[in-house]
Design goal:
By secondary structure, the protein is α/β, with parallel strands linked by helices. It has 8 helices and 11 strands. α1 (about 5-20) packs antiparallel against α2 (about 30-45) and α1 (about 5-20) crosses α3 (about 60-90). The radius of gyration is 20 Å and the shape is globular. It is an enzyme of class 2 (transferase). It comes from Acer yangbiense. Its EC number is 2.5.1.43.
């Protein structure tokens, strides 16, 4: 049952969708910025019901949500392109990243993701190569991680748009360090296979696969080609924030052991899912996978129970959900 406060939220989101969809262009301007700012602020507070799930809403609202996510993706791409061009006009573009209005969010998100990596790797200093899928014209996550956290790691950025990679390359070319450690590949990730085995960590951007079917296809492809034991960092959304970005559930990560899920409750929008590639003993689409690390059989199609607690002692505004996946010693 949807409560009154949630009905108000849904009505407001649908009203903003109507206004956004009627715009002639989603390029950054006063009206576009105002409407998307309103949308983000509407979706940021946690719903009154902690179990609020957009997938339980009516079919018409679901359709509006799907269209809204695509509009958000288009607007985000145009915003990043605009600021990438602006930053490239400076002699040292990376010295002016704070001109991007959401730069502080990326600093927080990158800090969070680095902290998560540190909890599941013995030594982050040993990471040689990272892939970021869906890096876009303003690859801030790669830039922040490379300059502030993983200062010896090579970053391979994948994007399907040639113009996005061209703009991103213009940003980092003047930097003597990043120009040697950051690489850009113009290709559909579904056409990348054996190269994926080279990466210890793969990041999947929130807007790669903007509906459930597309997202699962990409995740399955990564599961087929990533090295066993490698980590996958997936961006998702929770609660009302799922009106802005697609949701990735644990059962979507077939072929992976889901380690934990973090749901920010501050101005950072994306949830973060971290998972480890398993050693499969049968085809990836099978319902049974053996986890050699923990000597157990997992049923990855089952969404597991989640226990919430605070992951970072210094960050009380973050929730971690650890998935307790039940051992199955006998197959029925």
């Amino acid at each position: 049952m949807v409560c009154q406060e949630e009905l108000v939220l849904i009505e407001k989101v649908c009203e903003l969708y109507d206004q956004i969809s009627s715009l002639e262009s989603l390029k950054p301007c006063k009206d576009v910025n105002m409407l998307f700012t309103q949308l983000v602020h509407t979706c940021m507070p946690p719903p009154p019901n902690p179990n609020f799930d957009v997938s339980n809403l009516s079919k018409s609202v679901q359709e509006t949500r799907s269209k809204l996510i695509r509009l958000c993706g288009e607007a985000e791409g145009l915003l990043e392109s605009h600021f990438s061009t602006l930053l490239s006009s400076y002699e040292n573009p990376l010295h002016h990243l704070n001109l991007f209005p959401y730069y502080s969010n990326y600093l927080k998100l990158s800090q969070l993701e680095f902290t998560i990596l540190g909890q599941h790797l013995t030594n982050t200093n040993t990471i040689n190569k990272i892939a970021f899928v869906g890096s876009g014209p303003l690859p801030l996550t790669s830039i922040v991680l490379a300059t502030k956290h993983l200062t010896k790691t090579a970053f391979h950025n994948y994007d399907i748009e040639p113009s996005a990679n061209s703009q991103a390359l213009n940003l980092i070319s003047p930097d003597p360090d990043l120009s040697q450690r950051m690489f850009f590949h113009t290709v559909d990730i579904m056409n990348v296979s054996n190269e994926l085995k080279d990466y210890e960590v793969v990041f999947l951007a929130a807007l790669v696969g903007m509906d459930k079917e597309e997202k699962v296809k990409v995740i399955d492809h990564l599961a087929n080609y990533m090295s066993p034991g490698a980590l996958l960092m997936v961006r998702s959304a929770h609660g009302a924030r799922a009106f802005l970005y697609p949701v990735v559930n644990p059962c979507d990560l077939r072929g992976f052991e889901v380690l934990s899920i973090y749901h920010p409750t501050d101005e950072v929008i994306n949830s973060v899912v971290i998972a480890r590639k398993l050693y499969p003993i049968m085809p990836i689409h099978s319902s049974v996978v053996l986890d050699h690390h923990n000597n157990k059989i997992l049923l990855p199609s089952k969404c597991s129970e989640i226990e919430a607690f605070n992951p970072l002692n210094h960050a009380g505004n973050m929730i971690e959900e650890v998935l307790a996946i039940e051992d199955h010693h006998q197959l029925s």
